[in-house]
Amino acid sequence: MKDQRLHTFYQPKMSVNPDNLTGYTQNPAKPRLLMEYLERNGLLEFFLLDDNFPPMSREDFYIAHTKEMVDNFFDKGKTSKILHIKWTPEYAESVKYESASLYHAIRHAVQHPEEVCFSPSGAFHHANPTRSALFCAFSGQVIASMKVYHEFGLCGSYIDLDGHYGNSIDNSRDFVPDIDKAISPICGNINIIARHQVYIEELKANLKTLRNEIIEDIVHYVVFCHGADSHEWDELASQLSTEEWVECSRLVYTFIHDLQNETHKQIPLIVILCGGYRRDDYNSVLSLHTTDLVTCLNILCGQDINYKTEVLPRMIK
Ligand SMILES: [Zn+2]
User: Fold this and answer.
1) What is the Å distance from ligand 1's center to 253 Cα?
2) What is the spatial distance between Cα 178 and Cα 99, in angstroms, rounded to a whole number?
């Protein structure tokens, strides 16, 4: 069994102050909003807080992006129009810590596979080597996995159940040397393009392939990103009912649980957030993520937490 709490890589600097949000999305403040939600619901005791990690350096961002793009962002406040987030010094600082949170979560998980690591991050999967896109400033997951590969020689897989296709890893394949060794070309970027029961069947099929890659020692760690925007009442996507959405969490954590029993070894697991867009009721987004985390705690960490998902039907188009 994994340890009983989620080792959580969070510090306030990885989040913009929610009062300073101006654009469409609350993503830049999501790490803080989620941690506050967990606290309001009396769940913080299940999260072992690690708030002492340094930010990513300028050189780290060059791993997955052109120098021009990175320098324009940090020195001139220049972003791609399709980022759809207004640049501020606070936002620029937060993205350094958001990527760092994921990197340190993976780094810790591969060294301590008996602990599930949690990074309340996830605005990464639409960025590409030359520009930010769709609320994602940089490819934090590519940077994190490349650093972990160079340090430990390990290869990862991302189970990306956000409502949108995560293009970032695929778009980095020609730009980042050795990325195929750091993120599996077969199972490194699992995305499901389907709805309802077909979605669930496709997830099961993908997990079968991933199982083989883990058993064959090709994939050494798993990052699970259950975006809340794959829920049917989200504003920007709609694939799964609440029950189906939670079933996907159950499938992934049971998959890890069973594989650990079968192989008699701990599989490093890192949980992150990804998208979720509800201007009418952001609590619905936070509640779905919380349900995912509680499912993880109950299946993998021996907890028996009774948390009720609070998702309201969408009020606006
Ligand atoms: Zn999304």
Assistant:
1) 21
2) 20
- Structure tokens, 307: 């948390």
Question: Which pLDDT tens digit goes with each residue over 222-277?
Answer: 999 999 999 999 999 889 999 999 999 999 999 999 999 999 999 999 999 999 99
CA distance 90 to 20: 9
Using the CB atoms, write b or e for 55-67: b if 16+ within 10 Å.
Answer: bbeeebbebbbee
Cα–ligand 1 centroid distance for 302 (angstroms) = 30
Q: How many CB atoms lie within 10 A of CB 305?
A: 14
Cα distance between the two ends of the chain:
43
Q: How far is the CA of 250 from the centre of ligand 1 (A)?
A: 20
Q: What is the mean pLDDT of the chain?
A: 96
Q: From its phi and psi, is residue 132 left (phi > 0), alpha (psi between -120 and 50) or beta?
A: beta
List the structure tokens of 248.
């996907």
How crowded is residue 92: how many other Cβ atoms within 10 Å of its Cβ? 15
Cβ–Cβ under 8 Å, residues 37 and 18: no
Distance 137 CA to ligand 1 centre (A): 14
**290-300 pLDDT, tens digit each:** 999 999 999 99
Nearby residues of 134 by Cβ (< 8 Å), 6 or more positions away? 82, 83, 84, 126, 164
Is pLDDT above 90 for 117? Answer: yes
Ligand 1 centroid to Cα of residue 289, in Å, is 13
pLDDT tens for residues 128-157? 999 998 999 999 999 999 999 999 999 999
Residue by residue, DSSP assigns 203-232 as HHHHHHHHHHHHHTTS--EEEEE--GGGBT
Distance from the Cα of residue 40 to its chain's centroid: 22
Tens digit of each residue's pLDDT (9 = 90 or more) over 78-111: 898 888 989 999 999 999 999 999 999 999 999 9
